[in-house]
């Protein structure tokens, strides 16, 4: 089984969402940035790479701390957005599974909600280790499993009941990195030590909109599955997803718990 079609669809999906990231995905992922940077033990003058950087928020936040930061992402529109937002930083189109950077050229590497979007997270970890100097720090974030997430528990109950998953392209397990023991083993194999896990109580704060429509802009994986279904099934999924999120509706929108995990380690 190969994930080539999924990889291409992910790249195109994030390319298409670059202009909508601020009003959707960023409403959750930006909450993680301070803890992510803190885990890297940064000092002014260090060199950092923001992996799967999207619009460049991690690199931009690091630069504000006097870090020499740059970013890489496989979606061209994301790189264009990042470069416009942070014109003094360097961003390039590229795949974090095979980076063009020299070995041992960074002091820190960060990846905010990016590893579960690639087809081989273990290889991405090894690449992060390769570009880090010995003693360099690597940190990345990951959503908790649906069993520990109000958002994804409700979402995937609907998807399992209504969607024919076989209609979508084969994809890696989105929650393989939600198990700390699995991640610790992968990071150790990649060349990291001093591995830590921290839980963050992330909350999706969404505006008052049709929640289904909002979530179709929030990510790429679920829209790929929904888009493969027949129109009448898509309508059922819409209605059931909105009903599942109704308990989390507030006067100003939605506040849905979706905890995250922050993993960090030191390059040997």
TrEMBL record:
<keyword id="KW-0808">Transferase</keyword>
<protein>
    <submittedName>
        <fullName>Methyltransferase domain-containing protein</fullName>
    </submittedName>
</protein>
<dbReference type="GO" id="GO:0032259">
    <property type="term" value="P:methylation"/>
</dbReference>
<dbReference type="InterPro" id="IPR013216">
    <property type="entry name" value="Methyltransf_11"/>
</dbReference>
<dbReference type="Pfam" id="PF08241">
    <property type="entry name" value="Methyltransf_11"/>
</dbReference>
<dbReference type="InterPro" id="IPR029063">
    <property type="entry name" value="SAM-dependent_MTases_sf"/>
</dbReference>
<feature type="domain" description="Methyltransferase type 11">
    <location>
        <begin position="50"/>
        <end position="140"/>
    </location>
</feature>
<keyword id="KW-0489">Methyltransferase</keyword>
<dbReference type="GO" id="GO:0008757">
    <property type="term" value="F:S-adenosylmethionine-dependent methyltransferase activity"/>
</dbReference>
């Amino acid at each position: 089984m190969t994930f080539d079609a999924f990889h291409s669809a992910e790249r195109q999906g994030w390319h298409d969402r670059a202009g909508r990231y601020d009003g959707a995905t960023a409403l959750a992922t930006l909450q993680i940035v301070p803890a992510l940077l803190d885990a890297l033990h940064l000092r002014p003058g260090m060199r950092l790479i923001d992996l799967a950087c999207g619009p460049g928020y991690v690199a931009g936040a690091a630069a504000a701390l006097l870090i020499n930061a740059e970013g890489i992402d496989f979606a061209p529109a994301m790189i264009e957005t990042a470069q416009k937002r942070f014109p003094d930083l360097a961003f390039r189109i590229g795949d974090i599974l095979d980076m063009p950077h020299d070995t041992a050229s960074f002091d820190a590497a960060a990846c905010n909600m990016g590893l579960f979007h690639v087809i081989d997270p273990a290889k991405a970890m090894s690449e992060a280790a390769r570009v880090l100097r010995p003693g360099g720090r690597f940190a990345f974030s990951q959503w908790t499993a649906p069993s520990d997430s109000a958002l994804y528990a409700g979402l995937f109950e609907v998807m399992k009941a209504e969607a024919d998953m076989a209609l979508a392209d084969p994809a890696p397990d989105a929650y393989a990195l939600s198990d700390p023991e699995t991640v610790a083993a992968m990071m150790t194999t990649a060349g990291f030590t001093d591995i830590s896990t921290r839980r963050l109580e992330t909350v999706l704060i969404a505006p008052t909109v049709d929640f289904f429509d909002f979530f179709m802009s929030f990510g790429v994986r679920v829209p790929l599955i929904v888009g493969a279904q027949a129109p009448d099934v898509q309508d059922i999924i819409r209605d059931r997803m909105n009903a599942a999120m109704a308990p989390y509706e507030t006067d100003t929108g939605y506040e849905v718990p979706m905890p995250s995990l922050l993993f960090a380690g030191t390059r040997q």
